[in-house]
Amino acid sequence: GGGDSVVTLLDYGAGNVRSVRNAIRRLGFGIKDVQKPEDILKANRLIFPGVGAFAAAMSVLNKTGMAEALCTYIENDHPFLGICLGLQLLFDSSEENGPVQGLGLIPGVVGRFDSNNCLRVPHIGWNALQIQKDDGILYDIGNNHVYFVHSYRVMPTDSNKEWVSSTCNYGDEFISSIKRGNVNAVQFHPEKSGDVGLSILRQFLLPNSSISRQKLIEGQASKLAKRVIACLDVRTNNKGDLVVTKGDQYDVREHTKENEVRNLGKPVELAGQYYKDGADEVSFLNITGFRDFPLGDLPMLQVLRYTSENVFVPLTVGGGIRDFTDANGRHYSSLEVASEYFRSGADKISIGSDAVHAAEEYLRTGVRTGKTSLEEISRIYGNQAVVVSIDPRRVYVKNPNDVNFKCVKVINPGPNGEEYAWYQCTVNGGREGRPIGAYELAKAVEELGAGEILLNCIDCDGQGKGFDIDLIKLISDAVSIPVIASSGAGAVEHFSEVFKKTGASAALAAGIFHRKEVSIQSVKEHLLKEGIEVRM
Ligand code: 1PR
Questions:
Q1: Which CATH number fits domain 6-205: 3.90.700.10, 1.10.10.10, 3.40.50.880, 3.30.70.790?
Q2: Are strands 392-397 and 420-427 parallel, antiparallel or unpaired?
Q3: What is this structure's pTM?
Q4: Is the CB of 373 under 6 A from ligand 1?
Q5: What is its main location (predicted)?
Q6: What is the CATH number of domain 227-529?
């Protein structure tokens, strides 16, 4: 079972548990991996971060004999912490591609959030909890927010209420954590919930190690917090170093004789800084991924590995996710590229150009082949792990009937008094316009398995004049997955504007944070003052 400073980890190899490992190490613990069922029975403390789909996980647990060992371990009340799917698997069954039987230790059925409820599914983001029993691992949590990412949940009932230690509101009231004796499980991700999450893990690893008990304000209904995301556009400069750069309408070169790539800092350092400053998420976009193959670009994987050692909020990485054949004729599938990103510490991957091609094909044929990178990655890792990044450019028109794309009546008319515009999708970092609009693309990629949309706007990028409200409203009204508003933030007021006028779930900025013109903290304080729920 290892000494007191060792945790046993049940990782059945279905996805990224690197961040759980990093968080355990950060708290000063070693890790012993479960190889066989006896390792579970011998553990002093067991952490079970469930990843992937319910049925696939149960099938591995049953086949390896681990299901039985887990049940014995838990029935004997040994210290246990299940995370996300690691909570759901304890229940009777799940409707995810099912019904599928679970471990049956707790009465209840895992069901899908109802997206007809005006809710965006997956539930992605930060919520506060309603504490039902405030002892144990939630001792320090108070009204702080923790990070969720899931499409399925269990509801509290009379038959499972003795287990429920907290609930959370998202359309329905669902179970956010359970506790009985030494057995704990949480639906959220402590390893991605910043300092609050680390303190929850610390309470499990070192019971009664509480640093400061947070006061619980009773009776607060928690809302999903709006996220503030820091984005790092990354590429190699002329010297071959990987740098954070920032474009002006996607042009990242200095307008000097040398024409060098604008250099705003080092990726790992900046990401660490934004984590400390309170970013709810950090995104890396490998902006030359469309021409330089990312698996040849090992520095990017290295950046992810180092970043995930110190950054305990979600990390997204994009750029170059597509099928590729290298100079030696070796073929790499987009799934292999994505898997390498996940293994290196990404929680979500983002697809740009390849998703445009997939959507065009889908709209042309009406057939879902299941073979596009979007569909394949989403099938294996779940749609909550797949973001589609859209790079549209505004095209003004006099008459909306002149084009076959969804037009909006714009707030500010175009240069020739045009009152309408459509938003043309581009590929290869904005270099090539495609015959598909952002509206059509967004709806198509939602059907193909995207779990979230990162909505840029080339016209607004780097301008600091505010987000494109017309565009963001158009897209956030069109889909029921979360939409991240991006491009154009120049002041704190732009963030409250986008949250008040559109259905965006998150707002992303780059330039103002890199140039230290506006801090993440001041954005959050402003939003709070404006009555918008944020994680402080
Ligand atoms: O097509 O799958 O290889 O992905 C390429 C990815 O790289 C896409 O997500 C695409 O958006 C991104 N990208 C490509 N070229 C550029 C460029 O700038 N030349 N960057 C680029 C996208 C936009 C945002 C930026 C916001 C906020 N940059 O990431 O951070 O506009 O900026 P602001 O707050 O300063 O206004 P593939």
A1: 3.40.50.880
A2: antiparallel
A3: 0.95
A4: no
A5: plastid
A6: 3.20.20.70
